[in-house]
Design goal:
14 helices; 300 residues; single chain; globular
Length: 300
């Protein structure tokens, strides 16, 4: 419990500094977008490459990842059954966790191991994202191509970095320090920079404005913040995972909706308000939800 409180305190201070920087720092209007672009193109790929390269790739076939995938799929389906609005973007908002921008800090500062978030990142980037983008292209444009589907992952620097890291991990290749050390150093900047950028994005935002997306947003938020961690916990218990793994998958299932969901909606001009508000609200409620999980696990 103390570790969780300390972890969220660190995250909160960094996010708050970003909020204050946007409000009083006199930054240009595109400052947040520039930071996000730097993280997307350079910082996060370096962090993912070094993290995956040092990880056990067999975790992709482990019980914890099976639980995480199952909880996500259940929330995807429940959203479509209950909300019936927002389609692919709404489903993603209800079950696609921010395992990268928020998950890595939480895994680092709360669970004590950033590598715990990497299998979920790999699952989402290598499997869920290509499928979701294909469905979005079919439902919004009405057509897609095999070539576009197959090459979509290769146009994402985070997916490429993850794949390259997996190659290094599988082959046991040892990179020289002159190559690895700069990548590790750059990667270390990803977590604080993205938290600052996220704090900047919270300044001046209004959510749940009257409109057709309000009810769907509430459904997505409830599924993401309450149903998904509870589902992960029950699945983990059913599979008889060790206590530490039950705790980890429950915490990671309680992560907020990923900011990538908004990017996907923006790319296809659909579900933008739903994605934006769900991301904001689930991020605001993330800390109390995960602190509650940590508190309950102290008695279990």
């Amino acid at each position: 419990m103390i570790a969780a409180l300390s972890g969220f305190l660190v995250i909160g201070v960094i996010v708050l500094s970003g909020w204050g920087l946007r409000r009083w720092g006199g930054l240009p209007e595109n400052a947040e977008a520039v930071l996000g672009r730097v993280v997307w193109l350079v910082l996060n790929p370096c962090l993912l490459f070094t993290g995956v390269a040092a990880a056990d790739v067999s975790a992709l076939f482990s019980g914890p990842l099976l639980v995480s995938a199952g909880a996500a799929l259940i929330c995807f389906g429940l959203y479509l059954l209950i909300a019936r609005r927002g389609g692919v973007v709404g489903s993603l908002a209800a079950g696609y966790v921010n395992a990268n921008f928020i998950g890595i800090p939480v895994a680092t500062y709360v669970l004590g191991d950033a590598a715990l978030a990497i299998p979920i990142i790999m699952l989402q980037l290598l499997i869920i994202t290509p499928v979701a983008l294909t469905l979005l292209e079919l439902t919004t444009i009405g057509r897609t191509s095999v070539r576009a589907t197959l090459t979509a992952p290769l146009r994402n620097p985070m997916i490429v970095a993850t794949l390259l890291g997996a190659v290094v991990a599988l082959t046991g290749l040892r990179l020289p320090a002159v190559v690895l050390d700069p990548l590790v150093t750059i990667g270390h900047a990803a977590v604080p920079v993205v938290l600052i950028a996220f704090g900047m994005s919270l300044s001046g935002r209004r959510v749940l404005a009257p409109g057709p997306d309000r009810a769907a947003t509430i459904v997505a938020v409830v599924l993401k913040t309450a149903v998904m961690p509870l589902t992960a916990f029950l699945l983990a218990i059913t599979l008889r995972l060790p206590h530490s793994e039950v705790y980890a998958v429950t915490v990671l299932a309680g992560l907020p909706t990923a900011q990538n969901v908004y990017l996907y909606g923006q790319r296809f001009d659909t579900g933008l308000i739903l994605a934006r508000d769900t991301i904001f609200l689930t991020t605001l409620t993330c800390a109390p939800v995960l602190l509650s999980v940590a508190f309950l696990f102290t008695f279990w």
